[in-house]
Amino acid sequence: MRLAERLSDVDARIADAMRASRRAPEELTRIVVTKFHPAAMVADLHRLGVRDVGENRQQELHAKRGDLSDLADLRWHFVGQAQTNKARHIRADADAVHSVDRIRLADALHGAGEDAAQLDVLVQVNLTDDPGRGGAPPGDAAALAEHILAHCPSLRLRGVMAVAPRDEPAARAFERLADSAAAVRGVAPAADWISAGMTGDFAEAIAAGATHLRIGSAITGPRPERG
To answer: What's the CA gap between 29 and 27, in Å, rounded?
Structure first.
């Protein structure tokens, strides 16, 4: 299946899931994650109408955004784990950062662009019992949101993000994320983004209220071998 066919197939499946959940198409943003794929694929996706692209690695985000600087209407979403010492570079290249999971990272992103336009950010929530996984504990999400609102005015808090664990049904995990999203909206009513759902579980994410999907291989195909 070619790129255009894979994109069309996924979009049809998304539309089916949205209808099943009685949700309007405009409630959802589909982000295509192009990790390890070349900038040429992003250009091809742009020609097919894609405007939201996700990257997991700062270096790759920087390189692709530079290569495709003529595509000014592309929106670049940083969706990977962010290191504090890369905050300045991430801030320079990302239009939205989905993985703010600690105060130090929020402060670093804010400090890297105090005089710049506001950066969209989401609080990442850890839906597992493993503290080593990325994301703030669900019970800490609202407090992190409060910190961003009070101390990081150059960041615009948009909502929450999470990755479903592999060892439980995605629907159950996304129910917990919906609870965290409600807690964040309790301190920031406008922060209504829920970034959830990837290639294997986007239908469950839609049913749980996701507003942003991060879909990779179902659209891009297998990641190329790295040398």
So the answer is: 7
195's enclosing H/E stretch is strand 193-195
Q: What is the helix (H) or strand (E) element at residue 160, kind and residue range? A: strand 155-161
**pLDDT value of residue 226:** 64
**Cβ contact 90:78 at 8 Å:** yes
What domains are defined for the chain? 3-20+27-220 (3.20.20.10)
The pLDDT of residue 132 is: 83
Q: From the first residue on, what is the mean pLDDT of each consecutive set of 10 residues in the chain (227 residues)?
A: 96 98 97 97 98 98 98 97 96 98 98 91 96 92 98 98 95 97 98 97 98 98 75
CA distances from 75 to 34, 68, 112 (A): 13, 11, 20
Phi-psi region of 222 (alpha: psi -120 to 50; beta: other; left: phi over 0): beta
Q: Please give the Cα distance from 14 to 50 (Å, whole number).
A: 15
Q: Is the pTM of this model over 0.70?
A: yes
Q: Give the list of residues 6+ apart from residue 148 with CB closer than 8 angstroms, or none.
A: 100, 106, 121, 123, 155, 157
> What are the residue ranges of helices labelled H in 69-187?
87-93, 103-111, 141-151, 170-187
